Amino acid sequence: SVPLGQRKVTGVVVDTLAETSLKQVKEIAAVLDERPILDPSLLHLVHWLSRYYLASLGEVLTTILPPSLRSQSHRLVCARPGDFSLGRGIEGKIFEAVQKKGGKATVKSLVRSFPGGRLYRALNRLVELGALEARERPPRRPRGSGAGPTLGGERRIDSDRPAPTMEQQQALQVIEGRLRQGGFETFLLYGVTGSGKTEVYLRAVEEAQRAGKHSLILLPEISLTPQLLDRVESRFPGRVGVLHSSLTGAERWAQWWQILAGEVDVVVGARSAVFAPLPDLGLIVVDEEHDPSYKQEEGLRYHARDLAVVRGKLAGCAVILGSATPSIESFHNCRQGRYRLLELSQRVEQRALPQVEVVDLRQGQIENFKSQNGRSATLISSSLREALQENLARGYQSLVFLNRRGFSNFLQCRSCGFVLRCARCSVSMTFHLGRRLVTCHHCGFGTPANDRCPQCGNLTLSGIGFGTEQVEQELRRLLPRARIARMDRDTTSKRGAHERLIRQWERGEIEELVGTQMITKGHDVGGVTLVGAILADLSLNLPDFRAVERTFQLLSQVAGRAGRGREPGRVIIQT
Fold first, then answer.
1. Domain ranges, residue 123
2. Do 387 and 415 share a structural domain?
3. Contact yes or no for 96/128 (Cβ under 8 A)
4. Are the C-beta atoms of residues 559 and 354 closer than 8 Å to each other?
5. What confidence tens digit (pLDDT) does each residue in 265-302 have?
6. 94, 110 in Cβ contact below 8 A?
7. Which of 58, 143, 338, 390: disulfide with 333, CB 3.0–4.6 Å?
């Protein structure tokens, strides 16, 4: 705690100087923590971040530290004994309010009760009269429960410890050799979907444990991958810390302190967990290293995958980047000798990769895009429709992928051609049928949908284009008896909704799952034998230099959800 003007704020010591050119230096008011909250390697990372991303040390520390660590001190006023005859004016009312609060109150709480500029003048007069005493309360640290938080909901205990395949053994031999030897090295674990990359991660963590080291596992979106979290927690019971955005300030601080104290061996988390204060860090794993979710777009902008490599170098530990569809820059780093490439080319138990069929909608199946009433278009070709019906009859599950949410891309007037656009950013607004809203997916602005054109006044606004909501409606028409669900940002906005859907999916309570890129995130459900991509080339022409690469990754990942059990998989790609 350090004095700043008339208040005290929390400061972080980032360096010490033997000499200074400053004429007046204030003393530190209080040392709040018994031990440093940043070890030397993490402190080096703070300085590296500041230099590389052209950010101030304060901005970097604000990003890294939990909010509870950044709390400020509070100004207090305490009532003194005596009869001051203050009357019923504002001074008397303030003094009475302080007495009702047990004889002391924060200035912040009094501002809520006495708004306006007169409060501070009255407080100063009360202090001068001796009725109140002004004090400073230092920042408080929330006390943790001692138990590491999880995502909530049910946890599945996975006691299965499969024997490694030959390729897994070869990869582990290289990784474990580095862990025993110590030192920094980055491995790119390039394994096809279903090849057992997670088992390689877990065995590498075990080797790090044997060496007395701690491990960090990064996931692109932790709420979307509860299966991996299940496996980590069952393999290392009671020794796993979890960092994610749903934690309260007190929970985050409790986790931070447990991690700092070495009470957990493994930390699992999303991109911000790259800053976890793990002592004796021996291994960093970045699962699905290609995923764009690792890029922080607000505040201090950084890429967690790249920071993981930098932190590994500063800490002198091994780094594993895993993916079935690695990024081009990671392949380039392998060619340049910066990373070491390890490959898993076969699925476990010699299971076959799914059979892929491409349906060209321009040749032979375009007529199937007209519904019986001729007014609306169906999005599912005859090949995909027949495959879905056959798969359902056989008792297996299907995935239908379209990376566009909502019901229609935009609303357009059939009379005058007017397109409804966002009032804030001029982007066309997406129509959501279930909520009867038009929403801007760029800035989040939304308004109730209306059939009347705001330009010409005719009742001729109609939806153009399609999204997952329309695909779900079409599936319910084609498969009226099937149990169908949709997974996108609209259906998973509430806390825990992701995990509930995934658990239902795993238990077979959902037979047909429609979704956006959320359904591509590493889910391992043995009953899924069919995957359909509605329009595979939807994202190919986006104004993004990664559009082609990203489209390939999405299609490869969603195709990899099929055939992960005993039955072979089939993928139908409409284009």
1. 74-137
2. no
3. no
4. yes
5. 999 999 999 999 999 999 999 999 999 999 998 889 99
6. yes
7. 338
